[in-house]
Amino acid sequence: MKLVYFAWVRERIGLTEEEVDLPAEVTTVGDLVGWLKSRGPEYEHALAEPRVIRFAVDHVHAQRDRPLAGAREVALFPPMTGG
Amino acid sequence: MKLVYFAWVRERIGLTEEEVDLPAEVTTVGDLVGWLKSRGPEYEHALAEPRVIRFAVDHVHAQRDRPLAGAREVALFPPMTGG
Amino acid sequence: MIPIRVVVQAGPFDVAAEIARLKAAGGAGAIVTFTGVCRDEGGRLQALELEHYPGMAEEEIGRIASEAAGRFELAGLTVIHRYGRFSPGDDIVLVAAASLHRQAAFEAAGFLMDYMKTKAPFWKKERLADASENWVGPRDGDDAALDRWRK
Amino acid sequence: MIPIRVVVQAGPFDVAAEIARLKAAGGAGAIVTFTGVCRDEGGRLQALELEHYPGMAEEEIGRIASEAAGRFELAGLTVIHRYGRFSPGDDIVLVAAASLHRQAAFEAAGFLMDYMKTKAPFWKKERLADASENWVGPRDGDDAALDRWRK
Q1: pLDDT tens across A44-53, in order?
Q2: Rounded to 5 degrees, what are φ and ψ at C86?
Q3: What is the distance between the alpha carbons of residues D21 and D87, in angstroms, rounded to a whole number?
Q4: Rounded CA gap, C16 and C19, in Å?
Q5: Ranges of chain D whose pLDDT falls below 50
Q6: CA-to-CA distance for C125 and D97, rounded, in angstroms?
Q7: Which residues from chain D sit within 8 angstroms of residue C103, using beta carbons?
Q8: D18 φ, ψ to 5°?
Q9: Closest Cα to residue C115, out of C127, C125, C107, C126?
Q10: Residue D77 main-chain phi, psi, to 5 deg
Q11: Are the C-beta atoms of D80 and D93 separated by less than 8 Å?
């Protein structure tokens, strides 16, 4: 699955995107956050305040309980400030 | 005093403006309407539905109880439809 | 005092130039414009004639604009109302409001239009395709629109 | 279906051209535009950088625009959101809504902006005059602004 990061989530992780192979037990967006945080201090720092992180699955906003089955691209980013 | 008329009030009276000398007993905008209606069938026709006529005294919207003392120009017109 | 520009004219206006003028005054983070356009009334309308009360038109719009400037936190405000003869598609009126944050500009533009509809001394006469003509009456909704601004 | 035009681009936009395009589609009696401009933040701001999520930005704005077209009686709707580097005074976003009567265009433009602020995937970073930089946080008012549109 492809993960993409934006704004300070991108800066803290130090990547704009990456391909990952998820363990079988990671089945929701919330699981993904927990798994990412175990991957190193950059991820820990980027996702330290889980309440403020927003998600999109295949370009559509998603909540933490969103299943990952069939997803091609998951995005993690801070609250949006466009307009 | 100068009287000015607009839209269908102007068309029905057949004048855009006129100078008038008011009798002493005509002291308010409402009195003026009553006095004008007595001046002929054009005025009668223009002012037949007194509820819909609007007024301005010296370029400021006014109600029927507005005194005429000191007024230089009184306008009579239908509801406005600008914008 | 913020810059307030009120113009009553026969000729056309330039929305882009009016936006640029408001931006040049500074302090704008949001600019809302309203352009009122002559409708074709489903093909029935041939032309629209707008009569106005010279002198009072400028003064009354100026009073409404000052009231808006007092109610909303604006950086600038422009109102241009045309008179004369219009064909379908012609611009009739422009309101442009600038503010730091968007809500004030939206509210001021809405307030201006609601008040102009019922207080600015302009009258519309329709000339129809069948050669008849008639004075436009007030819309029922226009008085109701004012109610939301009553303090 | 009314014409809906959504553009995400680096370059500038032309408000007058967008208004003309909406008028050309017909049925417009009222056109409301909102232009969001880069503020100078009291002289503190040197530049603003807008990052976006390519692909999702267009799609999400398209979804918000379709929702607006379903809620309000519109004749046409245009949204242009820029990304990249901005100086104070530069245009960032344009919403233009056309309708037969003014209320729908005002409401649609307000709805679009309220939703874009919190749902369109764009992020602002300020570069300040003292050479520091920081990501802009969400405004408290932006979530509250959404509440008035909840059905």
Answers
A1: 999 998 889 9
A2: -125, 145
A3: 28
A4: 5
A5: none
A6: 27
A7: 141, 145
A8: -70, -40
A9: C107
A10: -150, 130
A11: yes
Q: How far apart are CA A80 and CA A22, in angstroms?
A: 27
Angle at CA B42, nearest 5°, toward B39 and B47?
85
The dihedral built from the CA positions of residue A62, A68, A73 and A75, taken in this order, carries a sign that is: positive
Residue pairs spanning B and C at CB distance below 8 A = 70
**Does residue C30 sit in helix, strand or coil?**
strand
3-state helix, strand, coil split of chain A in percent (to 5) is 30, 25, 45
Q: Hey, what are D48's tokens?
A: 């603003």
Do chains A and B meet with 3 or more Cβ pairs nearer than 8 Å?
A: no
Which of C107-127 are b and which e, b meaning 16 or more Cβ less than 10 Å from the residue's Cβ? Answer: bbbbbbbbbbbbbbbbbbbbe
| Structure tokens given for C21 | 């003028």
Whether residue A42 contacts residue A13, with contact meaning beta carbons closer than 8 Å, is answered with yes
ipTM exceeding 0.90? Answer: yes
Helix (H) or strand (E) holding C82: strand C74-82
Using CA atoms, how far apart are residues C31 and C103, in angstroms rounded to an integer? Answer: 10
Provide φ and ψ at A56, rounded to 5°: -135, 140
Instruction: Record the tokens describing residue B31, joined without a space.
Output: 């009195």
Q: Which of D28, D30, D29, D45 is nearest to D86 (CA)?
A: D45
Contact assignment for D23 to C37 by CB distance below 8 Å: yes
Query: In chain C, what percentage of residues exceed pLDDT 90?
Result: 82
CA distance C117 to chain D (A): 11
CA C60 to CA B78: how far, in whole Å? 16
**For the segment D42-62, what is each residue's pLDDT rounded down to a tens digit?**
889 999 999 999 999 999 999
pTM, two decimals, is 0.94
Token pair 């003064």: residue: C59
Cα–Cα distance for residue pair B55/D24, rounded to 1 Å: 39
- In D, minimum Cα distance to A11 occurs at D135
Cα separation, D32 vs D95, in Å, equals 8
Residues A17-27 as b/e (b if ≥16 CB within 10 A, e otherwise) read eeeeeeeeebe
Please state, in angstroms and rounded to a whole number, the distance separating the CA atoms of residues C143 and C118: 7
Give me Rg for the CA atoms of chain D: 16
C-beta neighbour count of D104 within 10 angstroms: 21
